[in-house]
From TrEMBL, chain A:
Listed Pfam families: MrpF_PhaF
Matches recorded under InterPro entries: MrpF/PhaF-like
Transmembrane segments: 6-22, 34-54, 60-83
Membrane topology: Multi-pass membrane protein
One function term, GO molecular function aspect: sodium:proton antiporter activity
Keyword Oxidoreductase in record: no
Superkingdom classification of source: Bacteria
Origin species: Actibacterium naphthalenivorans
Keywords linked to the UniProt accession: Antiport, Cell membrane, Ion transport, Membrane, Transmembrane, Transmembrane helix, Transport
Protein name as it appears in the record: Multicomponent K+:H+ antiporter subunit F
GO cellular component, one term: plasma membrane
Localisation per UniProt entry: Cell membrane
Automatic annotation (TrEMBL), chain B:
The protein's name in its UniProt record: Na+/H+ antiporter subunit G
Keyword tags: Plasmid
Organism: Brevirhabdus pacifica
Record has ATP-binding as a keyword: no
Highest taxon, organism lineage: Bacteria
GO molecular function: sodium:proton antiporter activity
InterPro entries: PhaG_MnhG_YufB
């Protein structure tokens, strides 16, 4: 039963990644694209966690933690660049 | 693995998948950038929270030990999602909304999106 639920969750988050990709391509403003990239990072973390359950190893938690940190820092850096024209003042 | 645990893990996985899908679908469906902020920042964060709870239950029922990595990731994501949303909203405001459309800030200096704070100004 868990494997079927896992496949369903994989499909959901994969479809979510496709939606984000569409928003990055179409998005009328830079803020839409930053938001879509941020959502992509969150979906990617979810996929990594699900892959860890599928394989039965706890190795992927460190990877998803790192992806979460890098994603947050890159979102803030991108926004700061658009806001102030500089990342660290 | 006991059957109740299996049902619980599957329920959390499906709930997480549905929430993640709804959040990402909101990114496509909603009309305005400010509306679009709602989907990813709330629904997707809740979805990944559900997925992490499912993973925690799974490794608890197979290995027997409670791992705190998932809680760490959940805490980090729940802390950073509002900050990122605030930054994206500020980016939208500075690019698309004119200064004159906003109400007055009722202080001696304007909104921080457009004006530097007085502490920064004194340095120059």
């Amino acid at each position: 039963m868990i494997s079927i639920a896992l496949m369903f969750a994989f499909a959901c988050f994969g479809l979510g990644l496709l939606f984000c990709l569409w928003r990055i391509t179409v998005g009328p403003d830079v803020s839409d694209r930053i938001l879509a990239l941020d959502t992509m990072v969150i979906n990617l973390i979810a996929l990594l966690v699900l892959y860890g359950i599928w394989k039965g190893t706890a190795v992927y938690f460190e990877a998803s933690m790192l992806v979460a940190m890098v994603g947050f820092v890159s979102t803030v850096a991108y926004c700061r660049f658009v806001l102030r024209g500089d990342i660290i003042e | 693995m006991p059957a109740i645990m299996e049902i619980l893990i599957s329920a959390f996985l499906i709930l997480g998948g549905v929430f993640g899908l709804v959040g990402s679908f909101g990114l496509v469906k909603l009309r305005d950038t400010m509306q679009r902020l709602h989907g990813p920042t709330k629904a997707t964060t809740l979805g990944i929270g559900c997925a992490l709870i499912a993973s925690m239950l799974y490794f608890f029922s197979t290995g027997g030990a409670v791992s705190f990595h998932e809680l760490l990731i959940t805490l980090f994501l729940f802390l950073t999602a509002p900050i990122a949303a605030n930054f994206i909203a500020k980016t939208y405001i500075i690019r698309n909304i004119d200064r004159s459309e906003l109400p007055a800030s009722s202080r001696e200096y304007g909104w921080s999106v457009y004006d530097d704070s007085p502490a920064l100004r004194r340095e120059e």
